Amino acid sequence: MTHSPDIAPLHDTAPLAGSGVRVAAALHANLTAPALVAHSLRKGEGRLSADGAIIVRTGVHTGRSVGDKFVADEPSTTAEVWWGKVNQKLPAQNFAILKSRVQAYLQGRELFTQDLYAGADPENRIRVRLVTTGAWQALFARNMFIRPPAFELPGFTPDYVILHAPDFEADPAIDGVKSTSAIALSFAEKLIVIAGTQYAGEIKKSIFTVMNWILPPKGVLPMHCSANIGKDEDAALFFGLSGTGKTTLSSDPARRLIGDDEHGWAPTGVFNFEGGCYAKVIDLSQEAEPEIWAASHRFGTVLENVVADPQGRLDLTDQTFTENTRACYPVHFIPNVELSGRGSIPKNVFMLTADAFGVLPPISKLTPSQAMYHFLSGYTARVAGTEKGMGSEPQATFSTCFGAPFLPRHPDVYGKLLEKLIKEHGASCWLVNTGWTGGAYGTGKRMSITHTRALLRAALDGDLANVTYRHDPFFGLAIPESVPGIPPEVLDPRASWSDKASYDKAAADLVRRFEDNFATFSDLVGDDVKAAAIRAAA
Ligand code: ATP
Ligand code: MN
After folding, report:
1. What pLDDT score was predicted for residue 535?
2. Is 453 close to ligand 1, i.e. is its CB under 6 Å away?
3. Is the pTM of this model over 0.70?
4. Does 525 contact ligand 1 (Cβ within 6 A)?
5. Ligand 1 pocket, 280 CB below 6 A?
6. Neighbouring-strand partners of residue 352
7. E-strand spans in 424-493?
8. Is 54 a pocket residue for ligand 1 (Cβ < 6 Å)?
9. Which of 104, 192, 403, 494 is the most exposed place for a label (fewest CB within 10 A)?
């Protein structure tokens, strides 16, 4: 029998092993980017930009469906899951029903499978198999995760399988879920079902959730952070919620990019979970972010919900479909990259926040106890969100460990691990406000990327080791009095406001929000962190 090398013969169902799907009308296993782009265009899923990137629309879901994520309630794992709003319980029998209905839906269709790794550290890696009806989502996964070398593909047995049926509509009455969309994880079966949403970020963040599940018992801290590494092999981490600058600031011509979003901190060093980046591209500036701009204008990249003219020329300012427009590309599309995906024990840890209230200083040095306080708080203030259902008004968000939506275990588990690692290795910790200065959102303006980069550089190069610090009266944060090349009024948020009384009020309000939020953690932390709460060094 002859067949195209791109299309597996119908009886070769090995690429479906572990999925419960037994037959496909056509089965495209482990296709590379050009073939996936070709299938995508043939199926009418998207079109090419003038530069050859594939542009797709994700339909009604242009961000994660936060209310539709479930964890199967299973006897072997139930005691360890942090049940609640983030990890909603799906009774095991409902998970079984949803799974079998999605398997039945996938039977006999044209399917794309991808065998990929999550985790650049072989000791802390999982083998992931995606089975999907979407050619572009297969490309998304291929770009985002780690592509195994060809010789590791034969005999690939997945640790986790993702059943991905974006056009399948879940039924709350049958499946026990809340809408036609469902993202359901079973840690016992090592199976993920994603149905009723085209938004590919669900694939990425489901696997992140799995890494957050499996690594803590191995003594490895999973983290929602970007990472890069300098000439002296000094690694830096950048924690932060969506839109705070993890992707933007980790792409730095002077430092090799390890990864832009998810890493593990093992006794041997840090490692990327992924093999690609997922950059926000709204209002992307070629001048301020040249690497990400170039990666967004080339073949192989997936552009979600980006608007283009009939010639395929991108308009990155157009928010018609969403403000959360994204480019997804393999990490090697960034020129200065650490291809191993691994780095040393971090020397500097930055906690990024986009404070739309304009209160927090652009950079401050944290004591280890303050670092714990801010890690558990996980503060940012958003002006517009990547999740469905957010308005355009600024809104304070506290998301513990800078990643509550992805934590299947209690935050205490991650907090304790970070505390131990920081104490053991003595990393320098910094709080960086990439948000507003000179007033709150509406009055002030967003911190310039150039200033933020200069402040990070000063911290990374050790220039902040020998400057004098003063302590802000509201949060007890140590603010450098001078940074080479930065106008002093930029360093002091209060000085940047014309109306000092308004600043004092806004700062007091923000302190109150922190205190209210931290009440849930005060029983979990030691006296040092309690003391660090707000006025640590005042
Ligand atoms: P996600 O978790 O959703 O991927 P992220 O933390 O990676 O979010 P970025 O994609 O880096 O966030 O988004 C930061 C956005 O803020 C970018 O659009 C960037 O251009 C903009 N921005 C404006 N000013 C700054 C600044 N001073 N520092 C960092 N980013 C800034
Ligand atoms: Mn990012």
Report:
1. 62
2. no
3. yes
4. no
5. yes
6. 432
7. 428-433, 436-437, 445-446, 469-471, 478-480
8. no
9. 104
CA distance linking residue 491 with residue 152, whole number of Å: 51
Q: With a 6 A CB cut-off, is 252 part of the ligand 1 pocket?
A: no
What are the residue numbers of the active site? 64, 205, 224, 242, 246-247, 261, 326
Which token pair is 163?
Answer: 């059943």
Helix (H) or strand (E) holding 327: strand 326-330
DSSP state for residue 68 in the 8-state scheme = G
Centre of ligand 2 to C-alpha 32, Å, is 24
How do strand 221-223 and strand 263-266 relate by DSSP bridges? antiparallel
Is 363 touching ligand 1 by the criterion CB < 6 Å? no
Tell which one of 280, 293, 352, 445 to mutate to probe ligand 1, the residue whose CB is within 8 A of the most ligand atoms.
280
Q: Which ligand is nearest to the CA of 296?
A: 1
What does each of the 538 residues of the chain score in pLDDT, given as a tens digit? 445 555 555 557 899 999 999 999 999 999 999 999 999 999 999 999 999 999 999 999 999 999 999 999 999 999 999 999 999 999 999 999 999 999 999 999 999 999 999 999 999 999 999 999 999 999 999 999 999 999 999 989 999 999 999 999 999 999 999 999 999 999 999 999 999 999 999 999 999 999 999 999 999 999 999 999 999 999 999 999 999 999 999 999 999 999 999 999 999 999 999 999 999 999 999 999 999 999 999 999 999 999 999 999 999 999 999 999 999 999 999 999 999 999 999 999 999 999 999 999 999 999 999 999 999 999 999 886 444 444 456 789 999 999 999 999 999 999 999 999 999 999 999 999 999 999 999 889 999 999 999 999 999 999 999 899 999 999 999 999 999 888 888 899 999 999 999 999 999 999 999 999 999 888 888 888 877 766 643 3
Name which residue sits closest to atom 9 of ligand 1, judged by CA.
245
SS3 505: helix
Ligand 1 atom closest to residue 324's alpha carbon, by position in its atom list: 3
Angle among Cα 222, 223, 224 to the nearest 5 degrees reads 140
Q: Can you read off the two tokens belonging to residue 325? A: 């427009």
Ligand 1 atom 2, closest CA: 242
Nearest atom within ligand 1 for CA of residue 447 = 27
Q: What is the rounded distance in angstroms from the CA atom of residue 37 to the CA atom of residue 51?
A: 13
Q: Which of 199, 248, 286 to mutate to test the pocket of ligand 1 (most atoms within 8 A of CB)?
A: 248
Ligand 1: which atom is nearest the Cα of residue 250? 11
Task: Give me the amino acid identity at 96.
Answer: A
Contacts of 528 (CB under 8 A, 6+ apart): 368, 369
261: closest CA among 234, 283, 237, 281? 237
Which among 241, 283, 287 is positioned nearest to 435, based on CA atoms?
A: 241
Query: What spacing in Å lies between the alpha carbon of 326 and ligand 2's midpoint?
Result: 9
Helix or strand holding residue 364 (H, E): strand 363-366
